[in-house]
Request: fold
Amino acid sequence: MAGSSALRPKIGAHVRSGGGVQNAIDNALAMGAETIQIFSGAPYAWKRKKYTEAEVEAYKKRVEKTGVEPAFIHGLYLVNLASSDDALLARSLEALVGDMKAASLIGAKGVIFHLGSHMGAGYDAKLNQVVESVRKVVDNTPDDAWMILENAAGMGGAIGSKFSELGTIIRESGSDRVKVCIDVQHAFAAGHDVKTRPGLDKMLDEFERDVGLERLVAIHANDSKCPLGGGIDRHANIGEGHIGRDGFENLLSHPALAEAPFLLEVPGIDDHGPDKENVEILKTLRPGVAVKS
Reply:
């Protein structure tokens, strides 16, 4: 597998894991996903799931048998490290620590999450709080789990729509365990023309300057209902949005992204989330069969 993964990205999706985390692997296989993202609990509830030893063992056996990896946990949507509400901030930290411990337990790479919104207070006013929050999570979680910051589309005072904001937070946190996931729909909505090679090159040059490509560990592969620079977080199925199939062919063929797993978070053909159809479309747009090592 080492030879193939180095030459072209793995294609995966956010998958359901109800009834036991090991079921995520079977759900991935059903849609042809090669890598996965899951929730460790309900996305809009503070309580995080505590995996049993039996679940963890069953999950790891399924991974070993199928080769469906790496895995990522997506943090719940209620998290806001820039909140002025002390209780909300405390619950956000607690939830992130719980998800990070769950990621370590099942051998997932880490937790992808949205930093949250300053709610009009301004990025500069909340920077120190966000940095301190990231440090607290890192300090209270296992060394083998990454905190993975996701870029924002730019709506509602969201922090992280600019790579310079993510880069500053990462540098100030002082930890090698803080990484980045680029959501291409969010990037497109924030003004990065990922649809064209010059636009994608420009974005990646900016990312390298402000963050560092070595920090990029995953791609959220979502087409965009929002036009370029529209600033709104609205996902579309692959080929049904403003990025289009040619845009994803561009993304999948870029050498700088060859080792980053592509994870679908699209509505799905039947509006039930990522599905086999979207996975297959991405696979057809991926560069040709890799040379075996």
The longest strand covers residues 178-183. The CA atoms of residues 90 and 184 lie 30 Å apart. The mean pLDDT is 94. The chain has one domain: 2-285.
